[in-house]
Amino acid sequence: MDNPGYTSLTRLSGLVREMSVVANNIANISTTGFRTEGIIFAEHVAHTGRDDPSLSMGTATGRSISAQQGALQRTGGEFDFAIEGEGFFLIDTVAGEALTRAGAFIRNDVGELVTPDGSRLLDQGGAPVFVPPNGGDLALAPDGTLSVGGQPLTVVGLYLPSDPLELSRQFGTAFVAESGYVPADNARVMQGFLEQSNVNAVAQISRMIEVQRAYELGQSFMDAEDNRIRDFLRTAGQRS
After folding, report:
1. pTM of the model
2. Which of 67, 76, 79, 78 lies closest to 33 in space, CA to CA?
3. What mean pLDDT is predicted for residues 172-176?
4. Which has the closest alpha carbon to 140: 73, 78, 72?
5. Among 35-49, 71-85, 212-226, where is mean pLDDT lowest?
6. 105 near 114, Cβ under 8 Å?
7. Which of 68, 171, 228, 240 is the least crowded, having the fewest Cβ atoms under 10 Å away?
8. Pairing of the two strands 145-148 and 138-140
């Protein structure tokens, strides 16, 4: 394969990855706490020889996570929590600790607040949040202080990744940051609300159309290159 072929193939590979990401965003328009994901393309310019022009390669090098606030929907649920501002809940999943904005919790058989898939909500000290049954009304203050029957119980942990650029999706609405987490001092939490997905449906569908057109254009170029090489080989064979 020659240089134009490598360049187009690299670009097409990145577009396939972006189409997958965009499709996943659209599929999660109604998922509580879902964060829009994007693909980051980078250009790598390499010299092909002392007197030859350089070669530009566009590659999909990374992914970005949108920090845009999603709409808050009032549910009135006792264990429905929503974060306003930057920050995440810290949960204990089967794969380790993770961050999430999905605040629809339930109380399990032993009184711990967990996500629908069983991941435990953690407090500021990294311990599971335990809510005793029959302890009275549950109240959550904006700073995360959780009270039962008017008595402070614990403080729900709100965190930010130490390096936002390292934030990556673990699964669903859960994220991990390899560099660790720091307290989110400016976030506030609301009881009886859930944060909706921050996916902009119109923007994502528009991007899907753009990606599809770009892929078709790149595929057309590859087909033209293939035909050009076939014609050259056919002509060379007839002259030999």
Report:
1. 0.83
2. 67
3. 94
4. 78
5. 35-49
6. yes
7. 240
8. antiparallel
